[in-house]
Amino acid sequence: MSFQSRTTCWGTCLALLAGTAFAADSDVAQLTKDPKNWAMQAGDLNNHRYSELKQITTKNAKNLSVAWTFSTGVLRGHEGGPLVIGDTMYLHSPFPNKVFAIALEDQSIRWKYEPKQDATVIPVMCCDTVNRGLAYANGKIFLQQADTTLVALDAKTGNELWKVKVGDPKIGETTTNTPHIFKDKVLTGISGGEFGVRGRITAHDINTGKVLWKAYSTGPDNELLVDPAKTMTWTDGKMAPIGPDSSLKTWQGDQWKLGGGTTWGWYSYDPALNVVYYGTGNPSTWNPRQRPGDNKWSMTIFARDLDTGMAKWVYQMTPHDEWDYDGVNEMILADIKVKGKPHKALVHFDRNGFAYTMDRVSGELLVAEKYDPVVNWATHVDMKSGRPQVVAKYSTDKNGPDVNTKGVCPSALGTKDQQPASYSPRTGLFYVPTNHVCMDYEPFQIEYTAGQPYVGSTLSMYAAPNSHGGMGNFIAWDAGTGKMVWSKPERFSVWSGALTTAGDVVFYGTLEGYLKAVDLNGKELWKFKTPSGIIGNVTTWEYKGKQYVGVLSGIGGWAGIGLAAGLTKGTEGLGAVGGYKDLAKYTELGGVLTVFALSDR
Amino acid sequence: MIKKAMLSMAAGSMLFFVPVFAPVLAQAQAADAAPYQVSEGNKVDAHTLSGWRTWRALACERCHGPAQEGMVGPSLVNSLKVLSKDQFKETVLKGRIDKGMPNFDGSKMVVENIDNLYAYLKGRSDGAIQPGRLQEIGK
User: Fold this and answer.
1) Per-residue pLDDT at B32
2) DSSP letter (8 states) at residue B103
3) Which stretch is the leader sequence (chain B) (predicted)?
């Protein structure tokens, strides 16, 4: 290992011995406890995206300036962010998924790795080639390539250690998520909800890549890794077993085989419970008439035992989705007071516009409230059944195929997509990048062809009407009460992962390309326009006594483009296109990491 | 339906075209009959309607935009002014993999409707067919 500059750690420090793999644990959890590092994409196991560093404060944030920059040499959407361990940064790019090890001392490239991937994967990823970043543990770097290859590299040299394929692009399977290292395992997912992919999550041996368990989102109990008698779900105001064939009963015929429920989000892990938490995506197709039933367990929060993969509890947020409200957004683990009582909570800002607070031990539903007042597809979540109460007017199933259901809020982008929120233990609040976009949605009959898009709906998207005219907000949320604390309007969707720090500074990026620092009241302290729109996640680290903040810019993905589609009349629904065209006035494609620090004065 | 003059969309250069309530000929190829029939901008012949349905089913708007004016993929309003019909077919069926354009020769619907798809997109490119939902003439 090449950590010349390791100094004292917070808490206890493991000796970092090259090649030492503790059977029960990797070093990553320990590395995240030292705020000098940014050792996981989310900064820690809890998805907090919070740092104890406090050199940058609300008072001096105005003095932030560019310390250095690095171009990935790739255009298109740059999601995720850099990892920093000791004196080295590890950075990824979108397809072709280059990996760079960068010496913090002089920003020289220690090594570079570029996988050989078949270009045919690009159109399957259509329309963007994002990757949400690397993982690190025990002297290894883990990359989940677009073509579904999971690869482990030697962090010192960039040499390949092992490779394993987790899917098949020929049937529309691709991967965009970061690998997640929990204890002694690498967990990864699958993308392709628009290609009729059957979602699952796999756990791999950190040293060999060998599959240890595989858990599907849809299908028979043994493939779901559920116990009909022991896996619990919120039922009629209490937790009860899910019973046999819980998924199969909610699909017509074999539709579950093309059922979606993909797993491309940010997972979290509670070591005390040994439970991993993640969410599943939309059921396919997007034409709800073609899949009667609740379509379990798409749109679901899963809590699984890390060692066996067995599901402890599940909760389906959007039964029988009719709007593409994927449930993959991050599950944030926080010990907070909920309605006055302390809970080991899980907080989740769903695409469907509701923010959920669950008890992460039992799986009980505690809070479900709209985190954007424009959300209209459901009046509320019934707290006894746990089901959203759908407004008939906005039911694309009830209105049926070839009927344009208009004015649904949120749009398919969700009130929040994958752009991860941040939790500050100092305030007990959540800082959330959101979309403020509504849609018209017209489903139609679609046939399945392997490897071809399997969508069956046309959409048009536009800024939420009768509001501030912008397409986004950055908000502060109290998950204990289900109330918004403040909301800061933005011109475009906020599609960048947020960061909070012990200096009480909150960071996020905008689609025009600004990195912004705000205080705990949402007051703007500082902003800087990076080379391209930001859909990356803000991170912070310390090197040689200085706190740095870094973010990838590189516009792309769904952000700002939206899956805008068919209009009913030539004059309508150009909102998303209009929005995108508007965005083109501010930014162009790019692929640059910009690193900031306080200027020496 | 609102009867409107053509939208001046990003593609530009279609401002001088005003749809009339009868099948029209494409301007660009005055010598050839247009491969589509259109009335009121949104009523088309059955073949062209199948072309639109093919466009919709294969989710082409994910790259080319809801009004074909380009997003991640190029503007087809512009491309169809340049590409010959044969070049168009070649591109759609064989793809331009390195650029992210899939090969659609594996899609029965596209293979069967390639001429209809061309007709629809040509109509969009000529500014004769409006973006969005279409219906059959006389239905």
Assistant:
1) 63
2) P
3) 1-22
Do residues A377 and A394 make contact, with C-beta atoms less than 8 angstroms apart?
A: yes
Handedness of CA A462, A468, A471, A477 (dihedral sign): negative
d(CA A196, CA A455): 8
Looking at the partner chain, which of B100, B107, B132 has a beta carbon nearest the beta carbon of A568? B132
Q: Evaluate if residue B20 carries a pLDDT over 50.
A: no
Which among B71, B94, B105 is the top mutation candidate for probing chain A, defined by the most A β-carbons within 10 Å of its own β-carbon?
B71
Q: What Å distances lie between residue A149 and A118, A141, B128, CA to CA? A: 11, 14, 46
Calculate how close chain A gets to B9, using CA atoms only, in Å.
Answer: 10
Nearest to A494 by CA among A472, A467, A461: A472
Nearest to A451 among B98, B99, B106 (CB): B106
Tokens read off for B56: 């919709």
By C-alpha distance, the chain B residue nearest A120 is B97
* A568: containing domain: 27-598
Q: Do B107 and A452 touch (CB under 8 A)?
A: yes
Residue of A445, A16, A451, A493 whose CA lies nearest to A192:
A451
Helices B108-126, B85-94: crossing angle, 10 deg rounding: 140
Q: How many domains does chain A contain in total?
A: 1
Q: Can you give the pTM of this predicted structure? A: 0.91
Q: Which two tokens stand for residue B81?
A: 């002014």
A452: distance to nearest CA of chain B, Å? 7
Strand-by-strand arrangement of the A422-424 sheet:
A422-424, A429-435, A472-478, A483-490
Question: Is A57 annotated as contributing to ligand binding?
Answer: no
Residues in B touching A566 (Cβ below 8 Å): 56, 61, 66, 131-133
Interchain contact, B65 vs A581, CB within 8 Å? no
In a domain, A252, yes or no: yes
DSSP states along A275-317: EEEEE---BS-S-GGGS-S--TTSSEEEEEETTT--EEEEEES
pLDDT, mean of residues A462-466: 90
CB burial readout A121-135, b (16+ within 10 A) else e? bbbbbbbbbbbbbbb
Residue pLDDT, tens place only, A187-196:
999 999 999 9
Q: Is A282 annotated as a binding residue?
A: yes
Say yes or no for a CB contact (<8 Å) between B130 and A458. no
Over residues A8-57, the pLDDT tens digits come to: 333 334 444 444 444 568 999 999 999 999 999 999 999 999 999 999 99
The pLDDT of residue A172 is above 60:
yes
Across chain A, mean pLDDT equals: 92
Residue B123 contacts A where some CB pair is shorter than 8 Å: no
- Looking only at the bridges linking them, the beta strands covering B135-136 and A546-553 are unpaired
pLDDT of A181 reads: 98
Task: For residue A521, tell me if it sits in a domain.
Answer: yes
Q: Is A481 annotated as a binding residue?
A: no
What is the set of active-site residues of A?
A: 324
CATH architecture assignment, domain B38-136: Orthogonal Bundle (1.10)
Domain boundaries, chain B: 38-136
Length in residues, chain B = 139
How much of chain A exceeds pLDDT 70, in percent? 91
CB contact under 8 A, A568 and B133: yes
* Phi, psi of A263, rounded to the nearest 5 degrees: -135, 50
pLDDT greater than 80 at residue A177: yes
**Residue A571's CATH number:** 2.140.10.10
